[in-house]
Amino acid sequence: xxxxxDLNAMNELHWLIDMVQxxxxxxxxxxxxxxxxxxxxxxxxxxxxxxxxxxGSNLFDRFDDLPATWLKQKMExxxxxxxxxxxxxxxRPYVFKFxxxxxxxxxxxxxxxxxxxxxxxxxxxxxxxxxxxVYDVTDVAINKMQLDNATDKLQLHNQTxxxxxxxxxxxxxxxxxxxxxxxxxxxxxxxxxLIDLDHLKQINETYGHIAGDRAIQHVAHVMKKxxxxxxxxxxxGGETLGIILNHSSATESAIQAERVRAEIEAAEFTYNSRKIxxxxxxxxxxxxxxxxxxxxxxxxxxxxxxxxxxxGRNCIKAIxxxx
Length: 323
Known about the structure:
323 residues; five-stranded mixed beta sheet; Beta-Lactamase; Alpha-Beta Plaits; 2 domains; five-stranded antiparallel beta sheet
């Protein structure tokens, strides 16, 4: 090899070392015992540990907060299978607990990381080392989480009735269909309630339509207070609210319905310094095999509600059950 070739080779080695040290990703090389052989400038800048100080140290001894068991399993698969492995921030936000100093994503305390594990072979072809490439993906992660959060808020807005903050009619009926299908699979008891505000027209004519809206909100508030975590409450339409009661027969549902009815009757709300009292009529239908569609289930519940109204209002009626 000529002196020119020697010089070119030295230059290429210098460029390669310079690139490894200044590249904007972390680069770590480990031997088979997880001892650190290379630690580039990115890793030094974010860990505060210089290459001279850490070279030859065991990775897991120097960083005892690493998920050792999980990470070693990943690394062993790379050594044994001669395949690369990838660790996403969505799988685990970070492996190295580096502080985040990016000004745009300052709300993230730690750096979100994607990591690639690559096998490194010797001149004989044996896999003797492994490289870890650490990518700072904090900006990507924060942007995605913000987008997901905005999407969740939009979805919640699209599912919510603006007046009562219950589920809107479309989404509540979708839940009714899902509970109908669940019943066909598991045959667990489930009942539907329709709650109708009595004499809303009279409230509108006496106090105004805003007072009527306040009355609907008042009933919705009392209803929500009495919902269990498994119950599904929504606004069916106008002054009619609905509840789907999972794991509840008609008789069990009537107990909860009576609690709601009695609390509404005893309570009052204030509008323009005037105290207003309201009552509700409630219809109940437990889902049975004879009801062959969600629409028929809803129709039967509506029949029970109509029966409560013609029975004098401020009462509860259930189809096929004496209450």
